[in-house]
Amino acid sequence: xxxxxxxxxxxxxxxxxxxxxxxxxxxxxxxxxxxxxxxxxxxxxxxxxxxxxxxxxxxxxxxxxxxxxxxxxxxxxxxxxxxxxxxxxxxxxxxxxxxxxxxxxxxxxxxxxxxxxxxxxxxxxxxxxxxxxxxxxxxxxxxxxxxxxxxxxxxxxxxxxxxxxxxxxxxxxxxxxxxxxxxxxxxxxxxxxxxxxxxxxxxxxxxxxxxxxxxxxxxxxxxxxxxxxxxxxxxxxxxxxxxxxxxxxxxxx
Length: 253
Prior knowledge:
29% of the residues lie in helices and 21% in strands. The protein is α/β, with parallel strands linked by helices. It has a single domain, classed as Rossmann fold (3-Layer(aba) Sandwich), CATH 3.40.50. A seven-stranded parallel sheet has the order 3-2-1-4-8-9-10, sandwiched between helices. It has a three-stranded antiparallel sheet with strand order 5-6-7.
């Protein structure tokens, strides 16, 4: 098991933050709702399909989240637990309909994308010009791109106490400013910054490099330590975010 020297302390820090405010929810039932997306069938990055399967295993088998509380979209519907084909329309429905109709205070929502990433001209799709630079960022879902503005609009309608968003794709750091302050407590984790590519599987073990380290750390906390506070707690402050190391020069995801 490969544990990142930066991700494991990050996870422990979030747990410690949560323990400080856990008493606020002591008399309430917190339900965890998850949307998990594997968005590309590009054989050059087949690891992205395995990444979400490992994440599904952690969520269901180790964190104890019921299969009925994980909406799983994948380009290959033969994988365990997949609810729908990964398409832009289906992802939008999962976030704007399924999540909105199920999540309520003080629930926790987790959204995870693993796919190719792209940049497009801010305002180039008829969207409002709202970036500090000229670029919007998107994540591929079944051959189309789900853009940062669209994800923000979908999240704004979710009634939850805290939100995780994890994105493994090139340029994924560009989602951070758009998703900040969308819920009372927001945690955004991305594999790279706004201007850089992201590693797919470079060591031949079948998993994309950044999210593998994240999932290994999460798996370690639940499987070996039995900690069950991680996704059931709130965050200090309004937005916590982390961007993985920039990896320029690699033709990643």
